[in-house]
Each structure stands twice: as structure tokens, then as C-alpha cells.
């Protein structure tokens, strides 16, 4: 069994999270500059067995597409072209940034470190991955 890799796609930087090979535990992986993301994913997927990709989909409060949703869907098409053998799943990512911020606060992370945007992106990717695992009835 391979890992599941989650992506919190952003214009400037992207947070990544993965499961362990048994697909039980979601762990923060890396924050990558978005313009380097495809190269990073190619290297990662060459070195690790990955069973699926999960991409956070930013929807409005009314479950409608936003301008950012269009950008993420376009990136999803790039992923499908680059990695045609990997299933791609979209997961609603509303509120993940707020949940990530709350997680950092409750974990005792100092205010200075919480302002590092990459930290929020990492936690958001983990939340996206946990949501996917829960939707599939897998343990988190």
C-alpha cells in the first residue's frame, strides 16, 4: 500500500501532507513554492509509493466556485496530465486556514511562528488529508 498525498494549493506556496504507507496517519510534509510544485511532486512520487492525490477545493460558503476554485481546478487538470495513473480526489477545504490557525494557537505555537504562512499551509494540508481519510471511513 502506498501513501496518499494531500495538496493545499496556493498562488505563492503550497502545503503538502502525506499518510504513512498504511494510510492511517496524516503528517505534514513540506511547504513548497508553487512554481516549483510539479518538480517537487515528480521527485517525491519517483521516490515514494503514492496511491492517490487529494487536492483541497476552496468553495464559497454557499458551496459555489470562487475565482480561486477555478485556479485549483486548472491545477487539478495539470495533475491528471502529469500523473495519469494516480486517482485525484477533490476535498472541500472551507475553513481549513481558520482551523489550522486555531490548531497552532491551541498547540502553544508562539505568535511570531504562527505568522509564518507556510506553517498554516502545512496544517491546512493535514486537515484536508484527515477530511479525506474520514470521508473514506479510514482511521485518522
From TrEMBL:
The cross-references to PANTHER family, in alphabetical order and at most eight, read: POLYNUCLEOTIDYL TRANSFERASE, RIBONUCLEASE H-LIKE SUPERFAMILY PROTEIN
Functional description taken from the UniProt entry: Could be a nuclease involved in processing of the 5'-end of pre-16S rRNA.
| InterPro entries membership | RNaseH-like_sf (IPR012337), YqgF (IPR005227), YqgF/RNaseH-like_dom (IPR006641), YqgF/RNaseH-like_dom_sf (IPR037027)
Q: Which domain of life is it from?
A: Bacteria
**UniProt-listed GO biological process terms:** rRNA 5'-end processing
Its Enzyme Commission number(s) read: 3.1.-.-
Please give the family membership noted in the entry: Belongs to the YqgF HJR family.
A GO cellular component annotated for this chain's UniProt record is: cytosol
- Which protein, by its recorded name, is this? Putative pre-16S rRNA nuclease
YqgF/RNase H-like domain: which residues? Answer: 2-100
Q: Please name the SUPFAM superfamilies in this protein's record.
A: Ribonuclease H-like
Arranged from A to Z, the UniProt key words for this protein are: Cytoplasm, Hydrolase, Nuclease, Ribosome biogenesis
- Look at the named UniProt entry and state the broad enzyme category this protein falls under: hydrolase
Instruction: Please provide an example of a Pfam family that matches this protein in its UniProt record.
Output: RuvX
